[in-house]
Amino acid sequence: MVSAIQPSIESTLQPNTKRILDLGSGLDRCIVDALTVDKVADTKPDIIHDLDVYPWPFQDSYFEEVYCLDTIEHLRDVVGTMDEIYRIARGGARVHITTPHFSCSNSYTDPTHLHHLGVFSFDYFTGANQWHFYSKSRFKKIDMRLNFHNNMKNRLVRRLANRFPAFYEEHLTWIFPAWYTSFELEVIK
Q1: Does the bond joining 100 to the residue before it have cis omega, within 30 degrees of 0?
Q2: What span, in angstroms and rounded, lies between the C-alpha atoms of 38 and 125?
Q3: Which neighbouring-strand residues pair with 68?
Q4: What residues does 95 pair with on adjacent strands?
Q5: Does the pLDDT at position 72 exceed 90?
Q6: What is the mean pLDDT of residues 102-106?
Q7: Which residues fall within 8 angstroms of residue 11, CB to CB, at 6 or more apart?
Q8: pLDDT grade for 131, boundaries at 50, 70 and 90
Q9: For the chain, which terminal residue's Cβ has fewer other Cβ atoms within 10 angstroms, N or C?
Q10: Distance (Å, rounded) from C-alpha 150 to C-alpha 78?
Q11: What domains can be seen in the chain, in order of their start residue?
Q12: CA distance 36 to 65
């Protein structure tokens, strides 16, 4: 494990600012004051690093907030990614994840998507199901939202799906496909 932040990383952080990390930032810079990480140099991230290579170049329990927006589905190992997020985040840190819902046509259309995730995929890290033994990293699910394209039909479906996500995924997913799923998790240490 990395025991200290590399000097080049420290120099990109402003003193007395919140420690925010944007994983796989691409060209989108919507997270204010975040340290950006991407493996593609042309996106001009603060840190060039392949997130499939562990450990990430950050010290343990450093970040207060971690964003992984439209990134986790591109990485080889979801469990390894969640374990690294857990390692580098402080206890109580907020983790924000968005990913196409498995019913979204883009989930399968994009050839760089390696995983197709649903509303209960991150329960494996909360201890809320019988398969929690895959990782010792623990998170509390603060929020989960199924998001749909904005039209009249989907407004009703969105309300139903978010109120009864298990019913939605079991019975309605392929009739009324979702667009993406967003999660807010809290690191439990």
Answers
A1: no
A2: 24
A3: 97
A4: 66, 185
A5: yes
A6: 95
A7: none
A8: low
A9: N
A10: 29
A11: 7-149+180-187 (3.40.50.150)
A12: 12
- Each residue of 150-167: pLDDT tens digit? 998 899 999 999 999 999
Nearest to 13 by CA among 3, 22, 1: 22
Helix, strand, or coil (residue 74) = helix
Cα 167 from Cα 114, distance rounded (Å)? 25
Residue with tokens 């209960």: 120
Which has more pLDDT, 1 or 81? 81
Rounded CA separation 182/125 (Å)? 16
CB 166 within 8 A of CB 148: no
> Residues of 50-65 as b/e, b for ≥16 C-beta within 10 angstroms?
ebeeeebebbeebbbb
User: Rg of the chain's alpha carbons, rounded to an integer?
Assistant: 17
Q: What is the pLDDT of residue 84?
A: 98
* Amino acid symbol at 171: H
Give the number of residues written for the chain. 189
Q: How far apart are the first and last CA of the chain?
A: 17
The tokens describing 58, both together, are 């950050």
Q: What is the pLDDT of residue 37?
A: 95
